[in-house]
Amino acid sequence: MSLGFVVGESKPTFVTAITQRALSVGEYIKISSDEGEILGLVEKSAVSSAAFADVKNFDEASESTEIAEINKRDKTFTAHIGILGFLENLRKGQSIIPAIPPIPGTEITQPSKQDLEEIFSPKNEGWVKIGNLLRNKTIDAKVNLDKIVSRHLGILAMTGMGKSNLVSLVTKQISKLKGTVIIFDYHNDYTALNIPLINVIDAKINPRLLDADQLSEVLEIRDGANVQQRVLRMAFTKHVKESKEFWSKLENEVDFIVNSEDKKLKEIRTSAYRVQDIIEEAQRRFEDILDPDMGDPISFIKEGRTNILNISELSEKQANVAVAFYLQQLLKDRKDASIARHGKSKRERSYKFNSPIFVIIEEAHVFIPKDHDTSAKYWAAKIAREGRKFGLGLGIVSQRPRSVDLNVLSQMGSFAIMKIIQEDDQRQIASATESTSRELIAQLTSLNVGDAVLVGQWTNLPSLVHVEEVKEKIMGADQSAVNAWANAEKMKKVAVESTQGLVQKDLLLD
User: What residues have CB less than 8 Å from 377, skipping those under 6 apart?
Assistant: First the structure.
């Protein structure tokens, strides 16, 4: 069925069409050409009325309404269509743009269900369903899991728009394949995720495995306290790391500085006193977090499972150190496995994991910030550059794209972008995703909860989809304050009635 015709100036990548009805943004259309059928995506849609073109007051508007109803030619439906490539090539996962633009007057039609299914719902191995096309709800939207591990994934959206649901869905699909996923859970959103093969770990830090600067962050020695940091570096020796009594040995080393008669050490005695207090206070405040006897934290991660690392109890600095440590060790492990697999290592097996790993960092703007360096950012950037060679994929999730380091963000090969209102966020996304047009970026403000623009290598074409809801996800949704208050009031009444009943019973017994 004819939808309309190409009009005006057309280009190999873009055409304008006059249509018989208003086309939805995100709708796919087909354009005939001598070289073959072309698939296009409606990126902008407009409706105009000749009767209302020069309306200046209410009376004119009222009269124009009657004229518009009588004149069937009054409405003009205009669609701005981005050309995605030849349909035949797109079925094979290849996007080839025509060299010659469609001729004005060329008819546009609807693609068939089969056309769309072959492109957006391929039956190839590794492709899994995450929802349906937003404007073609009968078409399953599938993504290529191989590409998110080998080329990384960014999930960006405002709070409450469905980021954690998408993370849960991707995790669930990988879990079905018995793949290894690690989620750094900064807000305790995933510990109640009810899917098979899940392993929840309350993240702790083994201070023996840190360097002096990392230990300084974990103990929360303030930034700029250079002398205190110097004292800690002097005290945090190899003997301290290897001592059975870690804290006692560390305190003794600081105590030696405090009591030393050395002239240079006397100059830093006041700072050494403060470091003593900090170490003592840290043992009390962080006894459930800092454990020098826990061994290697990596050993708690289980291969073939979804590993939820609950870092919600850690401060921002502590969480940063923990994430950096895990990222560093995971990259090392995958490198060692790769070297061993190619027969280049003469050492005994020195790696833990046999298969690829997908790491997801929630609240990425905290750990990979744009405006300053962190240890987690360093290792995340290294994985973004090198991880694909060793089977270590990176997923970053954030509601503040503008605050995420662009160098890391731009190395994400695939994106799911949900509702974004802030212009700074939109500009950052446009800078990081070359395949996202300005027209599509402009539509981000109008998306509903669960709607997403998918771009990049995990999908054959840019697409607007509605993401399937993961029923197994319990935490992460907004809490209803109204319901909580009502329930609390009910509990108070029950407690009062129960107390009154007991009092009456006691009086009767007396």
Answer: 367, 368, 369, 405, 408
Task: Identify the residue whose tokens are 């899991």.
Answer: 145
pLDDT per position as a tens digit, 3-52: 999 999 999 999 999 999 999 988 999 998 888 999 999 999 999 998 89
- Do 243 and 364 belong to one domain? no
Residue-level pLDDT at 435: 67
Task: Name the band, by pLDDT with cuts 50, 70 and 90, for residue 503.
Answer: low
Residue 232 C-beta-side C-alpha neighbours within 13 Å: 26
Average pLDDT over residues 307-327: 94
Cα(190)–Cα(301) distance, rounded to whole angstroms? 16
pLDDT at 443: 78
Q: What is the pLDDT of residue 72?
A: 80
Q: Could you give the 3-state DSSP secondary structure of residue 90? A: helix
Among residues 4, 43, 61, 37, which one has the least CA distance to residue 455?
43
Query: Which CATH number covers residue 448?
Result: 3.40.50.300
Q: What does the block give as tokens for 424?
A: 């700074």
Closest CA to 149 of 420, 392, 454: 392
Q: What are phi and psi of 93, to 5 degrees?
A: 80, 15
CA dist., res. 364 & res. 108, Å (int): 43
> H/E element holding 176?
helix 163-176
Total structural domains within the chain: 3
* Rounded-to-integer distance, Cα 205 and Cα 288, Å: 9
Contact 217, 278 (CB under 8 A): no
Residue 239 lies inside a defined structural domain of this protein? yes
- d(CA 480, CA 474) in angstroms, rounded, equals 14
Cα–Cα dist 250/295, whole Å: 18
Residue 294 makes CB contacts below 8 A (sequence gap 6+) with 204, 206
Pick from 465, 368, 355: nearest CA to 415: 465
* Domain edge (last residue) among 111, 130, 161: 111
CB contact set of 215 (below 8 Å; sequence gap of 6+): 207, 232, 236
Residue type, 334: R
Comparing C-alpha atoms, which of 220, 211, 178, 131 is closest to residue 463? 131
Domain that holds residue 226: 207-286
Q: Could you tell me if residue 192 is inside a domain?
A: yes
Helices (H) and strands (E) in the chain, counts: 18, 17
> Is the distance from CB of 185 to CB of 309 less than 8 angstroms?
yes
**Structure tokens, 8:** 């005006």
| Same domain assignment for residues 249 and 333 | no
